[in-house]
Design goal:
With 235 residues, the chain is of the alpha+beta class. 34% of the residues lie in helices and 19% in strands. The strands form two sheets. A four-stranded antiparallel β-sheet has the order 1-8-3-4, with no helix packed on it. The longest helix has 24 residues, at 190-213.
C-alpha cells in the first residue's frame, strides 16, 4: 500500500480510507477527522504514561498574581501538571506543595488561610480548572506564578499537519480511524478488516509505548539516603 505521505494528515486520511475500503462519501472528512483526532489524544496520552523524565508535550505557563485573588485558571491546553512555583514579592521564588482541601481541618476563610500559611512555603490546590493559592496574594505580582505542565495536542486539521509523536507510529491513527468506520458498517467483507485494524492499533500502541520507555537513555540517576540519623549498624 503506497501512501502519498504517511506522516502528514493527508496521508493518514488516505491510509485510513484505503484500509477500511471507504471513500469521501461514506466516510466524509468531518467524521474521519474526528476519529483521527480522538486517537491522536489516546496516542499522546499513552506516550506521556510511558515516559518519566522527558516531557514530550512539556510547556511552561506564566501568569500574574492579583491582590486578594486566590484562584488562578489553568492554561486551556493543560493535560497534566508537573510543578508550580510562586513568588509573592517578585523576587523570591518557592516551589508550591500540592494538597487537597480535605486534608485541611481548619476553616477555609481568608483570615484562617493568612494565619496558617506562609509565603515562603506556599501550597496549591488543584480544583476544577484552576489552581488555588495558599496563602492568598496580598499584592499583585507580574508573572508571579509559573506552571510546568504537559499539554494537550493541537488537533490535526490542515493537510500538512503532522502528529507530534515519532513518525513510525503515525500509522496507528489511520488504523484507529479505519477501526471506527468498520465497526459502524459491519459486514462479512469488513469483518477481517476490522480484526486486522483492531490488532494493528494494539500492536502500534504497544511498540510506541516500548519505544518511549527507552527513548531517553542518557540519564544519570542520583540516589540519596532518605533518613540520615540511622547508623546502619556502624555503632
Amino acid at each position: 500500500m503506497v501512501l502519498s505521505n504517511a506522516s502528514l494528515y493527508t496521508g493518514i486520511r488516505e491510509f485510513a480510507r484505503r484500509f477500511s475500503n471507504s471513500n469521501t462519501t461514506n466516510y466524509p472528512n468531518a467524521q474521519l477527522d474526528a476519529s483521527i483526532n480522538a486517537y491522536y489524544d489516546v496516542f499522546v496520552s499513552e506516550v506521556l504514561k510511558s515516559m518519566d523524565d522527558w516531557d514530550f508535550q512539556g510547556e511552561i505557563a506564566t501568569s500574574s498574581l492579583v491582590a486578594d485573588q486566590q484562584e488562578m485558571v489553568f492554561p486551556s491546553d493543560i493535560l497534566k501538571i508537573k510543578r508550580v512555583e510562586v513568588t509573592y514579592d517578585g523576587t523570591n521564588w518557592y516551589t508550591a506543595t500540592k494538597f487537597d482541601i480535605s486534608e485541611r481541618s481548619s476553616a477555609n476563610d481568608t483570615t484562617s488561610i493568612a494565619r496558617d500559611f506562609d509565603v515562603s512555603k506556599p501550597y496549591v490546590e488543584l480544583y476544577d480548572n484552576s489552581v488555588f493559592l495558599y496563602p492568598i496574594p496580598t499584592a499583585s505580582v507580574t508573572g508571579g506564578i509559573r506552571i510546568w505542565y504537559e499539554k494537550l495536542p493541537t488537533f490535526l486539521s490542515a493537510v500538512t499537519d503532522e502528529p507530534t509523536f515519532s513518525r513510525p507510529f503515525h500509522v496507528g491513527l489511520a488504523y484507529g480511524a479505519a477501526k471506527d468506520f468498520l465497526e459502524q458498517y459491519p459486514s462479512k467483507e469488513n469483518g477481517p478488516r476490522l480484526v486486522s485494524a483492531t490488532n494493528n492499533v494494539t500492536i502500534t500502541l504497544g511498540r510506541m509505548k516500548e519505544f518511549y520507555q527507552k527513548k531517553d537513555q542518557d540519564r544519570d540517576y542520583v540516589v540519596s539516603v532518605g533518613y540520615t540519623e540511622y547508623d546502619y549498624g556502624n555503632n
